[in-house]
Fold each of these.
Amino acid sequence: FNACRKAETELGSKTGKAKRAQVYAAFRQQMPIISLFLSEEQYDAYLDKALEELKEWFAKNAVAAEKLGSE
């Protein structure tokens, strides 16, 4: 989540591919062993699912969304 927020803050909107690359690089740095066994396609599937769940959570928790900077 922190890597996603950092990428959003640094790169802004309309930069999805660049943000994804930045977050993937952070994942590989923080979890080098796991990244050896997880393809980029698998990572993308997990990332898409996590972002979907995060959006749903923000929709249900407006106060948290505001504090965390969700659009």
Amino acid sequence: IASYDRAIVLKADCVEAYAGRGFSLLNRGRHEAALASFDHAIAVKADQKYLLAFRRYVQMQTHSSKNETA
């Protein structure tokens, strides 16, 4: 995650860094932070449909995770 953060500092419009950070955060169970990373990526480049698909995937994982803990 730190590497992605450094990449974002160096190049704030690096969509791949936001997406990579989002997946890394998701893998660590940090769903809300992962959603925020994908939101940033979409804000930078909204025309990339794969980003919307990834965000939706994170939303589904977040919902699934919340149901498991309930």
